[in-house]
Write a structure and sequence with these properties.
Layout: E1 10-15, E2 18-22, H1 27-46, H2 50-68, H3 79-88, E3 90-96, E4 99-104, H4 105-110, H5 116-135, H6 138-152, E5 155-157, H7 161-167
Antiparallel strand pairs: 1-2, 1-5, 2-3, 3-4
Helix pairs in contact: 1-2, 1-5, 2-5, 2-6, 5-6
Length: 188
């Protein structure tokens, strides 16, 4: 998958059974959590993680930075504010009986639609995307997200999650003809 930059910077992250689609945080949310976002962003690069390892650990770094600053817990804390907003802006797009369905990420997590490894990969990648799209200049963001996309398979899209789901090919089980495939004469 290739990564391209657009005005809305919605990101799509592939998972085993489909995709996770997420929109960027609003300016108001950025303004409220700018210091934690910028410290997390700086830590990602100061530690040499960049787009190679950053998408794998960004949520862990965000939590550490927020805890170190005493801003993780509480009603207005990063856990309840920024993290919940990132999850709220995200949907899982999976196929069910050949039809792509969109499920809010929060519901997908609660119903174990994503396994533990997928949840970790998705949340970390979404936090990296949030930090990168909030902090990089637009002229640099293309290279960063292209690098992330080439390693992690993410892409950006103009489509919202419903439009994105509608654009995906629908697979239908083919009717069996009752004939068996001819065995290959090429040794394996």
């Amino acid at each position: 998958m290739s990564t391209k930059i657009d005005k809305r910077l919605n990101i799509v992250i592939p998972i085993e059974r489909g995709h996770v689609h997420s929109m960027p945080i609003s300016r108001a949310i950025f303004d409220k959590y700018f210091l934690t976002i910028s410290k997390t962003f700086a830590t990602i690069y100061a530690e040499g993680l960049g787009f190679m390892a950053g998408p794998r650990v960004a949520a862990l770094l965000l939590k550490k930075v927020a805890q170190d600053c005493g801003e993780w817990d509480g009603e207005e804390g990063v856990a309840n504010g920024l993290m919940n907003e990132i999850v709220r802006l995200s949907n899982v797009v999976i196929q069910d009986d050949g039809i792509w369905k969109t499920i809010p990420l929060h519901n997908a997590i609660d119903k174990d639609v994503l396994n533990e490894e997928e949840r970790s990969e998705v949340i970390n990648a979404l936090v990296f995307f949030t930090c990168a799209s909030s902090m990089h200049k637009r002229t640099d963001l293309s290279a960063v997200l292209s690098g992330m996309g080439s390693i992690w398979g993410g892409q950006t899209t103009l489509s919202d999650s419903t439009e994105f789901a509608a654009s995906l090919p629908i697979s239908t089980p083919e009717d069996s003809t009752g004939q068996k495939a001819t065995a290959s004469s090429i040794p394996s």
